[in-house]
Write a structure and sequence with these properties.
- The chain has 284 residues and is an alpha/beta fold.
- Strand 2, helix 2 and strand 3 form a beta-alpha-beta unit.
- The protein starts with 6 loop residues before the first strand and ends in a 25-residue tail after the last helix.
- The chain has an 8-stranded mixed beta sheet with strand order 3-2-1-4-7-6-8-5, sandwiched between helices.
- Helix 7 runs antiparallel to helix 8 and helix 7 crosses helix 9.
Length: 284
């Protein structure tokens, strides 16, 4: 009997058709038993041609595609919906951005790292060619938070934590999930040997980032309030107003007021309140 753990790969699309050819070919080249792999895609921008493009690509692996019946659900809510459909025997979820193309051995390396004691709940792949500069322990891989661009999550822990907090529409939901995992006694690690090619927002030349910036600030306000309280929100608001156009900052504050969470009393040494707009100390 194959002891390779079953993995559900889930991708949330949003106007992502230009990434699909490379993503599909990357998934086809994954060195992982096909019978232990299930790929699902949920499109938050129905009617954008993604369905037709996938049919034309004729993927050489089983791929389930679905258009969102409610339009754009947001990143976290869409991933929660996909995760709820994973089979009871699914040991891991691989959360994958459409613009994050895994190396052929990426999934094997993530799963191998997840099996090593003490078992982590979240295992983040290294982004190539621009690795994320947040700190991690070079000996243990432990890191304050894991990016969801290419992230292996134990299915039971994702369910235990209630998945992503879908009040966060886009950005910082992975920070929040990671911090809730640490507070629940789980570990978050970075695995540099598992790599994916990821086109970050700032590397996507010519793209209008105003909407992403707005959502990033809303998420930043949310996690500051949840983990550090009012004083942190005030400091973050000051930094946001200094960095963002006035209309973007005010819009973010209005949205935050509608989703403001209660502040948690618990603390953890890897959950740090920084004076800037980051969520962990940076290596460079």
């Amino acid at each position: 009997m194959d002891s390779t753990p079953p993995v559900a790969v889930q991708v949330v699309l949003y106007r992502s058709s230009r990434w699909l050819p490379k993503l599909v070919r990357g998934l086809e080249r994954l060195e992982y038993p096909r019978e232990r792999l299930r790929v699902r895609m949920l499109n938050n921008s129905p009617g954008d041609g993604s369905r037709e493009l996938l049919e034309a690509l004729s993927p050489r692996l089983t791929l389930e595609y679905e258009d969102s019946a409610e339009g754009n659900l947001g990143f976290g809510r869409a991933h929660n919906l996909l995760a709820a459909r994973a089979g009871a025997d699914t040991e891991h979820l691989l959360l994958l951005n459409p613009d994050a193309i895994p190396f052929h051995d990426c999934l094997l390396r993530l799963v191998d790292r997840a099996a090593r004691a003490p078992r982590p709940a979240l295992v983040e792949a290294c982004q190539f060619p621009n690795e994320h500069p947040k700190v991690h322990d070079p000996a243990t891989g432990e890191t304050g938070w894991c990016s969801a661009a290419c992230l292996l999550v134990r299915t039971d822990v994702f369910a235990e934590l209630g998945g992503f907090d879908d009040r966060i529409f886009l950005y910082c939901e992975d920070v929040d999930l990671s911090w809730r995992a640490w507070l629940a006694g789980h570990r978050c690690v970075f695995e540099p040997a598992a790599r994916c090619v990821h086109v970050t927002q700032h590397g996507d030349h010519g793209k209008d980032l105003s909407n992403e910036i707005y959502h990033g600030y809303v998420g930043g306000l949310f996690v500051r309030q949840r983990y550090f309280g009012e004083a942190s929100v005030e400091r973050y608001t000051e930094a946001m107003r200094a960095a963002a156009p006035a209309d973007v900052a005010e819009r973010a504050l209005r949205t935050f007021a509608t989703i403001r969470p209660r502040t948690l009393a618990a603390a953890h040494p890897l959950i740090v309140d920084l004076p800037d707009l980051n969520y962990a100390p940076l290596r460079w």
